Amino acid sequence: xxxxxxxxxxxxxxxxxxxxxxxxxxxxxxxxxxxxxxxxxxxxxxxxxxxxxxxxxxx
Length: 59
Prior knowledge:
Number of strands: 3
Order of helices and strands: EEE
Organism: Aegilops tauschii subsp. strangulata (Goatgrass)
Oligomer: single chain
Domain Plastocyanin-like: 1-51
Shape: flat
Distance between the termini: 24 Å
GO molecular function, one term: oxidoreductase activity
Protein name: Plastocyanin-like domain-containing protein
Low-confidence stretches: none
Largest sheet: 3 strands, antiparallel
Strand content: 25-35%
Mean pLDDT: 87
Strand order of the largest sheet: 2-1-3
Radius of gyration: 14 Å
């Protein structure tokens, strides 16, 4: 999420020692749980984006 950090707390059904990231690459079959603290200016809009890498977008 633009302008926000994410705290990863779980990967593939297993709790992990929390760590902070700005971006997260997720591969086929993987799952993550993240916490996002909404602490930025509430009068602005923030983008959440995803991108397909290493595959044709139609697959």
